[in-house]
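Supplementary Methods S3. Complex input for the adenosine-5'-diphosphate-bound model.
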Amino acid sequence: MTAGALIELQANLKALNLSSMTRNLEGSLRQARESGIGYDEFLIELTTAELQARAENSLNRRVREAKFPLLKPLETFDLAAVPDLDIRLFRDLAGGGYIREHRNVIFLGRSGAGKTHMATALGIEACKNNFRTRFTSCYGLVNELIEARQERALQRLVQRYVRYDLLILDELGYIPFSKEGSELLFQVLAERHEKGSVMITTNLGFADWTQVFGDHAMTAALLDRLTHKAHIVSCNWDSYRLKQSLKEKGKQGRTPHANNGL
Ligand code: ADP
Ligand code: MG
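Predicted complex, serialized as structure tokens:
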């Protein structure tokens, strides 16, 4: 191929927004000449690479937009450590069917059980399935809503939170909300109802949610919407961290020269 033809072809690919093909063209042409592959195989290779690059870019963008506090993918979650988890349900959730059906998921259990880790891992899976995902703490969302109201930008923010396919609200229950905060959170959840999925992690049994929201009637209305067709995953096992540190201690105790502080 002449230098002129290469430049023209690169310009065409660029105009067609085929950026990976534009970048790879010269190298791929050289490789094709060396290995003697046909036009068909050459085009397949070039277009496959473009598709892969696009998928990767879109996954990276989804993950960035989701704002996970820590990137803990599914592979880092040790299923053997949580024998009481319904693994079939967990695998189903990783497939993202609940998002297509606009169902909610509530992880309920004590601190350290792995709720945030599971929600993060499932959030990353949702990004892989190309769902618009957002992770935030309940407290962070409420503060953001209160600030937006002060700046007269509440409706815009609520609409943004309504548009996500999956909204992950971490740590409901650690900090109670003001009346205004409860009402704003209620507004977001009510507007999302049956339009998109919400995933909540909480250490509170449903009976105690009134403590967080303050108002009985509003809590009842909220629970009614959230739990309707929801997957409720109780995580009533011991803290993973606690188990790990007990294991570590056990190991130290068995080492003949361990200094166990006695
Ligand atoms: P919770 O949100 O329920 O309080 P976390 O998800 O924060 O618990 O888990 C506490 C710590 O233990 C985190 O560092 C998390 O990555 C780790 N962890 C919990 N369960 C597992 C697990 N099954 N496999 C690997 N790490 C786990
Ligand atoms: Mg947590």
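The beta strands are 105-109, 133-137, 166-172, 197-202, 231-235. The domain at 74-246 is CATH 3.40.50.300 (Rossmann fold).
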